[in-house]
Structures are given as structure tokens and as C-alpha cells.
Fold this sequence. Notes:
Layout: H1 4-18, H2 29-40, H3 46-60, H4 81-95, H5 129-143, H6 149-182, H7 189-200, H8 207-224, E1 226-228, H9 238-241, E2 247-251, E3 257-264, H10 270-282, E4 289-294
Parallel strand pairs: 3-4
Antiparallel strand pairs: 1-2, 2-3
Helix pairs in contact: 1-3, 1-6, 2-5, 2-6, 3-4, 3-5, 3-6
Amino acid sequence: MANSKVTAILDLALQKASKSLKKPIINDSAIEKRIELIARNTQNRACARFILACSLAKIDKPGLDIRKPYTEIGDDDAFSGRTYDEAYITEFVNQNELPCNSTTAFLTPAFRNRNVVLTPEVNLVGRPESVYKATLQLLDDVYQRKITAEELLTELVRWLLVVRDEKRQRMRSLLASLRAAKDETSLPAEGIIGLIEQHLKLKNTSRLPVLVVAAAYEAASDYLREQVQPLQRHNAADKRTGSLGDLEITLIDEQQVVTSYEMKTRKVTKNDIDHAIEKVLKSNPLIQNYIFVTTE
Length: 296
């Protein structure tokens, strides 16, 4: 059950940030640059969630040491950052469409299974290195009282809102351009394939292969006598949704899954295959085809 006090802290930070989108909450330019670096980095979205969770915990319980988000440390001022992240930050990020990881930051390799105080000297072995260093320095800034946890939370939320709104504006401009050009030109098949190839070469595009294969089945459904089942949320685990993969193919007018597709933006590992075999063996009746597609 959500803690109303903690929820109110997030709501207040959102209100303050929304009213000051064009003006920083803090006056320290060095700290401001660190926060912007974390909010704008497209390669790493975990650090933003990490800072949100840690600053939220510190505001909720001022006696905590923001550098100790692991109960394994064993000190009285240590805390479970993952608990705050999963219990409050997930909903906050999703509701406001903030550019952060869709799942807890504490399962990323750099933040997983730690039991040390996160001082600026700690090597988190993450990429980009500059983002992780900025994250540790911000925790220390709060510890050294150069900035309050409230200021850190609010300023990070402000920057996340700025980045979100910039993305929305780009999308609106692109859609307007497409609508304006719709009646003037149409791409030949080669142009469409070229656009898809360019998109697939970008990072974080694992959803596109799912849509490509789904579109192919949709187009050929009458000939194949097979159909695509409604897509599950792409950021949800198969165990939670009960799905057998990213795409489930059934015979027309039937619910039996005959083919399952799983898309990866990395190399397919033995663990992936073992997990797929486990899902196949548990399916009833058995899946006939389990197909991996990787853009690696």
C-alpha cells in the first residue's frame, strides 16, 4: 500500500518542477550540469531512476545517509533504495512519461548486489563512466550539504520534464511533416526498407522488429491462415504477462499458439535458449516453433 507522505513528496517535487521548467531550482552551476548530464543521457536511463529513489528516501527519512541505499551495509542510516524505487518511482515515472528505465535501477549491473557506501571514489564499472561519476558526486553533494535532497529531486524531475517535452515536440513536428507530405509523395518499397534498416541500426529499437514481424503476419494472414495475438507491454516480463514471447502466432479462429517470436537487441545466450525451452515444455499444447530474432 502506497505511503501517502512519500507520494506527496513526489507530487510536490513535480509541481515545483513544472512551474520552473525554464529556470533551474538550484544556483550551483557545477551541480546543475551533473543533473542535466544524467537526465539527457540516452545511453543510460538507470542513473536518473537511482537518484530519484535515493533522494526520495532521504526526504522521507532525513536521518538516512543518501550514499547507503543498501540494507546489506548494516548501518542504522542505511536503507533499501530498491524498495523506494519499485514502490514509488515506477508509478511516478510511468504516470508522467519521464525518460527513465521502465524497471528498477537496482537490477542494473552497476547498482546490483552492492554493500558499500557509494562515495565518489567507488568504481561502479558502468557506461558511460561520466554519468556514473556524476551520480556518485550528486549523492556526495547531498551528504556534504552542498544541495538538499529536496533540491536534487526537484531539479532532476525538472530536467526529465524538459527532456520529455523536447521529445514530444520533435514527434509533433515529425508527424506534422508526414501529414503535410502525405498527399505529395509516397516512398517506394526501397525507401521504406531503407528507413527500417536505418532504424534497426539505432540503439534501443527492440520494439521495431516486433512490429515488423507483426506487420508481415498481418499482411499475409489470409494466405498463411495464421494471425498475430494482441501484443503485450514490451517492458513487462513474460512471467508477469503470461505470454510465451514478444509475438504469439495462432491459427486463424484458434487460440493455440503455434509459433512464438522473441526479439533481442543483444546476442542470444544459452540462458535465453534454456528459458525458451522451459516455456515450450510448459505450454499446452506444445509450441511448434520458437524463433529468436536478434539485431546484434
